[in-house]
Design goal:
Elements: H1 13-17, E1 21-26, H2 36-49, E2 50-58, E3 68-69, E4 74-75, H3 78-87
Parallel strand pairs: 1-2
Antiparallel strand pairs: 3-4
């Protein structure tokens, strides 16, 4: 089943988990998952929600200096993020600056 609706909340989580999506976007949100294992799990879950050939579009900080953590945000290194994304099953097609 392919879901063609915008998901704005998780009220119908069981129905949502039965869906496959062509595109998932997560802009300015994933770096707020401060726990490293939950962060990795988020990418695995998103991968499972995508139909074959689907796309994930994200914005991330991709820190090139020392990563910084706080209680509400974890700025991970670019290398760590890429490693997590690839291990979740994704192929990185394009990276480009979001803010310049």
């Amino acid at each position: 089943m392919v879901c063609l609706k915008l998901v704005t909340n998780l009220d119908n989580l069981p129905d949502l988990l039965a869906c496959k999506f062509q595109v998932v976007s997560a802009f300015d949100v994933l770096f707020h998952i401060v726990d490293d294992e939950q962060y990795k799990m988020a990418f695995r879950n998103i991968y499972d929600l995508l139909e074959k050939g689907g796309a994930l579009m994200i914005s991330e900080n991709f820190v090139r200096t020392t990563p910084k953590r706080s209680s509400f945000q974890n700025n991970r290194s670019a290398d760590e993020i890429v490693d997590i994304i690839v291990k979740a099953g994704f192929k990185i097609v394009r990276r480009s600056p979001f803010f310049v």
